[in-house]
Amino acid sequence: MYWHNLEHKKIGIWGMGKEGQAAWKALSDHCPTAQLLTIEEANTSDILKCDILIKSPGISLYRSEIRKAVQQGVIVTSGTNLFFANKKETTCVIAITGTKGKSTTSALLAHTLKHLNQSVVLGGNIGVPLLDLVDTNADYVVAEMSSYQCADLTGHPDIGVLLNLYPEHLQWHGTHKQYYNDKLNMIRLAKQPILNATNDQTSQLTSDIDAVYFNAQSRIHIKNGWFYNGGFPLFPISELPLPGLHNAEDACAVLTVIDILGLQPAACAEAFKTFHALPHRLQTIGCRNGITYIDDSISTTPETAIAALKAIDKGQPITLIAGGLDRGQDYTALVAYLAEHKDQMRLVTLPDTGTKLAHMAQTAGIETGITSEMPTAVNIAQHLTPNGGTILLSPAAPSYNLYTNFEERGDDFKHWAGL
User: Fold this and answer.
1) What is the mean pLDDT of the chain?
2) H/E run at residue 369
3) Angle at alpha carbon of residue 14, lines to 12 and 19, rounded to 5°
4) pLDDT digits (tens, 9 = 90+) for 83-92
5) How far apart are the C-alpha atoms of 72 and 47, rounded to whole Å?
6) How far is CA 155 from the centre of its chain?
């Protein structure tokens, strides 16, 4: 929907966080004749007074108020869609999504493009709303896209990257099937889709998409500790200062984008060397009394907790702190991994999923502590972890039952660790 389509319209903005504020500013700047209205949660019936509703990503597309508004002729759209419709034609948009890893991958791509002397800005789900970038003169916009932003997308990214798919965000999408379908909406709209060849869920659901695959032998992949482009070695994966095979595999997506843009993947080693991990993502926050503390509060699925354990496992004792909002996660694989290493690993659990997880772990013979709050969890973990060991916060569940967001959860962990 172009700016001129919005003139003289009554436009509701639902959600006045960063996205809503960006929409208000952009519409005020570009559509001075539009009448803007804030939609409050207590008065959602005001939506029906609007010609157009701009919905923030956190508000589910499947709420009854949205369905009713559409049935009565209200046009429902998003700040993301307004960005795609009104950005400069010369701006190349590289959209990145995935259940996990999208923030780090987006930041790494933007960092690498800058190092290669390209004009680039980073936005989307990672902090700067895309509408704040609609007038940018940068050649590239790297856009991190959440499943919420992908669900009702109508724009066409020049390059769309899908890192992985795991069950997530059931409360917003309704079903895991709908979640997958909403994620794939962005990829189907992308002019050049890029997919992960090693993610089983991705492979099952994208067989009809004409895509370039990373982590495939014919393109950018990992072999014998090196990044390869087809049969040609690029540089060692040790140049990437991020732990874990999953981070190296996501870096293959970055190198694939660089290759498609006609730049030189081999020239990215220096950029990788200078990249710093984002907070709360396998972030080593310090060492105290002989114990290393690692904050991976971003972890909201069992798969990401397993990846974190694999990334830091150097044979040392590890105590995992896990548990959070219950979204029906299946912890079978996580408990199985802990059980395989039960001489080395311990578990401390938090609500709500902690009770279920602890019961499964205890049944499997894993030494486990159960508590209802972070300070006690850290205290129990300290008693369970010998000198030279590691305490890892990788909750395998969302934070919203106890915290506002994963950042607050990670900060609380750091506070009670005394770091």
Assistant:
1) 96
2) strand 368-370
3) 110
4) 999 999 999 9
5) 10
6) 20
Per residue in 248-277, is it b (16+ CB within 10 Å) or e — as a string? Answer: bbbbbbbbbbbbbbebebeebeebbeebeb
Closest CA to 20 of 74, 62, 79, 66: 79
- Phi/psi for 387 (5° steps) reads -55, 135
- Cα 220 to Cα 194, 231, 245, 252, 254: the distances in Å are 11, 9, 14, 6, 9
Rounded to whole angstroms, the Cα distance separating 394 from 385 reads 16
The first and second tokens of residue 356, run together, are 């279920």
Segments in 116-222 forming alpha helices (H): 147-151, 170-173, 176-189, 200-205
Per residue in 241-257, pLDDT (tens digit) is 999 999 999 999 999 99
Task: Name the DSSP letter for residue 267.
Answer: G
- CA 141-145-150 angle, to 5 degrees, is 120
Instruction: Characterize 205-228 residue by residue with b for buried, 16 or more Cβ atoms within 10 angstroms of its Cβ, and e for exposed.
Output: bbeeeebbbbbbeebbbbeeeebb
Q: Are 171 and 147 in contact (CB under 8 A)?
A: no
Q: How many angstroms separate the CA atoms of 360 and 366, rounded? A: 9
Q: Which pTM does this prediction carry? A: 0.92
The residue whose two tokens read 């990044």 is 227
Strands 283-288 and 291-295: antiparallel
Q: How many CB atoms lie within 10 A of CB 411?
A: 17
Q: Are 182 and 173 in contact (CB under 8 A)?
A: yes
Percent share of the chain, pLDDT over 90? 95
Q: Above 90 in pLDDT, residue 170?
A: no
